[in-house]
Amino acid sequence: MPMPLEYCQASADFDAFMKDLVATSMIQTSHQAYTMLLAVLQVFRHRLTVAQAIAFANVLPPVLRAIFVSDWDVEAPVKPFVDRDALMKEVRAFRHDHNLSTDTALEDVTVVLRRHVDQAAFERALSQLPQEARGFWLIGQA
């Protein structure tokens, strides 16, 4: 079997994703955007069971998939979903001294992520998750 194209293209696709995230969020560097991305992904992941998180990860591009599951304590208790303000507070608290997340980090990452995934597969994965998890990836949700 030949190597899947998504793996051959992984670095280029991730570079395109990061450039899009920097431009969309108007953050100055890819390092700052990466910290924001990691914070948003981990805030979401902390609210999923292992099975839910793996199902979600499976629809992400390879590098984003790896970032999503990296440094994961699968024994940690699942956190409840909370309102967007509380989620943003958690995003900003991630690596506080090195985090320059925008006030719209959840929306910024959502917009860019949705541009870089297979929409049908993404929606199918979200449809299997609880309502709050689906709401996390909707633009303008309270």
From TrEMBL:
Among Gene3D superfamilies, the record links this protein to: Uncharacterized conserved protein DUF2267 (1.10.490.110)
Q: Which domain of life is it from?
A: Bacteria
Name the InterPro entries for this protein: DUF2267, DUF2267_sf
Q: What is this protein called?
A: Uncharacterized protein (DUF2267 family)
| Species of the source | Rhizobium rosettiformans
